[in-house]
Amino acid sequence: MKRFKVFGSLVKDSFDTITHGSKKYHLWMALLTFVMLAGMYCYSIQLEHGLSVTGMTDRVSWGLYISNFTFLVGVAAAAVMLVMPTYVLKDIDFKQAVLIGEGIAVAALIMCLAFVIADMGGPSVLWHMIPGIGVFNFPNSMLTWDVLVLNGYLFLNITIPFYILFRHYQGKEAKRSVYIPGAILSVFWAVAIHLVTAFLYQGLQARPFWNNALLGPRFLASAFAAGPALIILVLAIIRNFTEFKIQDKTIKKIAMVVTVAAQINLIMLISELFKEFYAPTHHSESAYYLFFGLDGKDALLPWIWTAIPLNVLATVLLTFHKLRNNFKVLFFCCFILFVAIWIEKGFGLIVPGFIPGPYGKIAEYMPTGIEIGVTLGIWALGAFVFTILAKTAIGIELGKLKYKKKS
Length: 407
What we know:
This protein has helices spanning 2-18, 23-49, 64-77, 80-88, 95-119, 142-169, 176-202, 215-241, 248-277, 285-291, 301-319, 321-324, 327-345, 369-397. It is mostly helical. It starts with a helix and ends in a 10-residue tail after the last helix.
């Protein structure tokens, strides 16, 4: 009974915390709310008219929504790069950042689920994925595996930080025997969510662009580059606008993770390019379309030839120790690397898999204004959720938000 009382107090105090703040905080939340409302309006148009208002067709049936879903799975998985050294290896340098990383993971997973709902056309068809009611088709379908691992990882990333913060809210230390098993499980689960997503694409035999043994490992490498890069940018913002001061050595350690992952990702990219273009076959046409265009169709060229130079530039700059330790250079590199991997893992991976079609027809895809509006709304939702989680967690960690025992 006492725990429910403490929980009620935590909810009340958290609500009070997230509804008060500086002028900049209120402007930020107002902006996110406006973008979410605009996204909801665009989504209402999609619900009324169906997926015909998007740029997707029966030729290219996955577009901006699934591109963002694929990318955000990696962002969510990247939290493990902070969880493992903090909870398992007891590295105190990561301790300040781990709760922020897990907050980003929760926000990213919520966005993943929202993008899946948007891509399915509407929430009314979700019952098909409910075991016992719909056609779940477990364990044969890789999609059902993806549903299980994503929701399981979301559960782990909510419960572990909640337990720790709940104890800190009461002025108590969290018991390692309670959260360490879950933390260890989340390490393996983070790898699983990305590998299962990669296997989902690899298992489609009619799409040779995705039939690549490196797809799973490259998913992980790009995730462990883009995810921690985003975490560094978020930590920089938190350092500037809150009293929660992240130490320089924490950011420098995360930067090393980004650097190594970016280098591995670039090596795998070069390996894939060699495989596609050194001894090309008719299965290389999707790659030719992506990088050089086919039959005068070249909608993706500006995207991929923006992503590759940004990727190379960021990786080269991060490789030099002196440049990486210059925070202005580091933040710039993290930003362009994040953008580059978003393009490469989004448009550069999903759309070319459908082009050309099984009969050689080239039907190009570009997102419509409705798709872009819904996408921006979902990203705003993720930022809104993370802001709420971060503000509450920071308040508890700074001791401003604590349980007041009534005498």
